[in-house]
Design a protein that fits this description.
Layout (H helix, E strand, L loop, with lengths): L1 E9 L7 E6 L21 E2 L2 H17 L3 E5 L7 H13 L4 E5 L7 H8 L3 E5 L5 H8 L3 H13 L4 E7 L7 H16 L3 E8 L5 H7 L13 H15 L8
Parallel strand pairs: 2-4, 4-5, 5-6, 6-7, 7-8
Antiparallel strand pairs: 1-2, 1-3
Helix pairs in contact: 1-2, 2-3, 6-8
Iron/sulfur cluster binds next to loops.
Length: 247
């Protein structure tokens, strides 16, 4: 598998402290992406699942003590779903659980289904709430995300949903109402446990310059933390999901 980077103790990638594995490659082109350096599927180091397992084991005392596990993020981790399944079996033998942090905009092939079935938790983005804005700001196909969420619900796989809030694009309450509309059936049925908002930030801007990639949001400011908290309170009230924002 091609690994872009590893964060041995990540705090925001699921429950407890996580050993976060950022896998290389992403077919999406989210306007707000702060990791364009992960887009290239060759942008990383190659590991066999066995090699990566040995590396993860070195961090186990730390994440286990903090009630955590492994998180596969990216890039789009499910591009390497078959490898996640192989590594997941090694982790399961040692009673180490994993979370998948995905765009959800993936083809539901057998490897993807097996990878998410093996996860203790899936964190799925709801980047935009309809096909038009989804296409405009990510380049992806919104119907795939809905099919993915339906699959997680049908399989009773624990799920959190997340949305990045970008000033001038989706930072108004009436815009969030449309996200709430999409998520409500999943939340009401218990399929989605939490809905967390993340604030757009500009810390990844330098990567666009370095890679020579046009940054569509170069004039967009970071979302103030207070505004993020207000919006998180707004969605929590409406969905009755007491979720913390990701500050
Ligand atoms: S899915 Fe994630 S990694 Fe891929 S472009 Fe979007 S924000 Fe960036």
């Amino acid at each position: 598998m091609i690994v872009h980077s590893i964060e041995s103790l990540a705090a925001l990638e699921g429950e407890g402290l996580r050993c976060a594995i950022f896998l290389a490659g992403c077919p999406m082109r989210c306007a707000y992406c702060h990791n364009p350096d992960t887009w290239d599927p060759r942008a990383g180091r190659e590991y066999t699942p066995e090699d990566l397992f040995r590396k993860i084991k070195r961090y186990e005392p730390y994440f286990r003590a903090a009630g955590g596990g492994v998180t596969f993020s990216g890039g789009e981790p499910l591009l390497q779903a078959g490898e996640i399944v192989r590594l997941g079996r090694l982790l399961a033998d040692e009673n180490i659980s994993y979370t998948i942090d995905t765009s959800g905009c993936v083809e539901l092939d057998e490897d993807v289904k097996a990878a998410v079935r093996g996860a203790e938790l899936v964190i799925c983005d709801l980047k935009f709430p309809d096909a038009g804005t989804f296409k405009e700001y990510t380049g992806g196909d919104f119907s795939r995300v809905l099919k993915f969420l339906d699959f997680l619900a049908a399989e009773k796989i624990r799920t959190w949903a997340r949305t990045v809030i970008v000033p001038g694009i989706n930072d108004k309450e009436e815009e969030l109402d449309r996200y709430i509309e999409v998520l409500r059936p999943y939340v009401d049925s218990g399929a989605v446990e939490k809905y967390q908002l993340l604030g757009f930030h500009t810390m990844g801007f330098f990567k666009y310059e370095k890679l020579g990639i046009k940054n569509r949001l170069e004039n967009t400011p970071a979302l103030p933390a207070e505004r993020l908290s207000d919006l998180q309170g707004y969605v929590n009230d409406r969905l009755k999901t007491p979720s913390p924002a990701i500050l």
